[in-house]
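hey m, so remember when u said the tokens were messed up on ur end? i reran from scratch. heres the input so u can diff it against urs
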Amino acid sequence: MGMNDTPLANRLHIGIFGRRNAGKSSLINAITGQDLAIVSAVKGTTTDPVFKTMEILPIGPIVLIDTAGTDDDSELGALRLSKTRQVINKSDLAVLVVDAGEGLNRDDRELLALFQAKDIPAVLVFNKCDLAPAPAETVAGVPGIAVSARSGENIHALKELLATMHKQERAAAPLVADLLRPQDLVLLVIPVDSSAPKGRLILPQQQVMRDILDADAVVMACQPPALPDLIRRYGRDIRLVITDSQAFAEVGAAVPEDIPLTSFSILFARYKGVLPAAIAAVKAIATLADGDRILIAEGCTHHRQCDDIGTVKIPRWLKQFSGKQVVIDTSSGTQFPDDLSPYKVIIHCGACMLNEREVRYRYQCAADQGVPMTNYGLFIAQVNGILQRAIKPLT
């Protein structure tokens, strides 16, 4: 995906589910008009989930997720099914593909119930309607449509239906634009150190900058050493300072109290809809005891530097702040644990690479198991004694 493409987390995620040979891969090829998925008469051709990023009219930028069949009862199939169920947690829309000639079975109905339990909009696609009569239009409140991936019958109608369902979903909150007025000056503090990618800004910085411009406000960026001089020159005109959370200590000391200050990570907690829960959870850091187990979780995988934030900096700050000998586990990418009960607190990254549904799912899993879950920005603000200041512009 290029720099100017819609970020992965901002694309509609459509999960394609169903039994082996129901025609999931054929349906994807029909929807996209391309041979993106391998089609075979051999059951189980699709194994692990496959993510396909594209733009489809009239839906817009999407991620299609092709999953393994739900009826593989082998030992390996059980592992694949587990991964397929993980895909549900990140699906904004779920498409259950059923062979029209076979109809729904118990596995299909269990999936429908799971979609409804997780409040995921779903559609039933009865494939191969050129070979069998079309079944009922609605099953258990889930709309159905009969299509033929082979002949193309009703494929356009399916895309129209998905587009309509997408429009009914809650619109994402702005990152920062609603906090600004036209011509407001916003200062971004962006450290360029060993962990910064060469020649480009990271995704949260790009997205916040674009949102500021969309608000007809003015954006200025600097590294931390330049901050004091810019404050002297423009201090009275600065509406908001947004910093990389790792620089909170230096930036908080340089920015006067009367200039609002927050971080990219905290803005993303609000953007993903989890800010109140994350604020409440960060207070658990002050209650740690020796031997408590902490999970530091990230939504993506990346090459770790010698002073990596998740594996080095946060554990160091955690032990300095708490004064306790805690046990730290880490997870990254899709490997978010099902069982969170061993942990006293979870510290998650800003989740810029995860869509809102998966972020909310992770926070809900933690809440269901009674484990406080906060994020990097709020944690770093807490250990630097500026938490209330950092959340004040947003509350």
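this time it looks ok to me. The chain has 13 helices and 15 strands. if urs says something different then somethings off w ur setup not the seq
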